[in-house]
Amino acid sequence: MLHTFIALVEDKPGVLSRVSLLFRRLNINIYSLSVGRSERAEVARMTIVADASPTASHRIMASLYKLENVLEVDDVGHQANVSRELALIKVAATTKTRSHIFELVEVFRARIVDLAPESLMIEITGVESKIEGLIQVLTESGDEVLEVARTGRMVMRRGQHSSRVLSAMRLPGEGFVEHGVEPEVLEPDVTGSMEHRFDM
Prior knowledge:
single chain; alpha+beta; 5-stranded antiparallel sheet; 4-stranded antiparallel sheet; 5 helices; 40% strand; elongated
């Protein structure tokens, strides 16, 4: 089971290595780890996705709090949140295959950020399944994926909205957009239309 934690830590040398060693001692695999500056001065934000048993969440949080320089830990895996990941995908491309790849990029709402004589680079942002879907479609179409670089999951809790705000977020012809859920384009179909789903 994947657990998602947000840890606010002091922005000092050695903190990342302490966190990594902690998960090694616990014999828990880190599925993804992203680190960057937070809204606070001299405080970094870590988003840690770990593969562990369903009951391991409290043990992981307690162990993180024991580490020096760890200020706050939040288990957001079971909370209403927004989760995104960014990926750069380099694909082999010729003059004959570029138009096909351009169509896939448009369907997945990605974009081309580099174009070379024998390859192109795609930038895509979204939930993990959206990125995996694009890579799968490229592979199944016979396009050679040369390189993939991914940021790992970035997560933030959703805000608390009033009924008035929720009403304003109603989609045309649809029901309520519950708790700020937004439509996410994930997969193309054979007709070229786009399939929408609500990403929780």
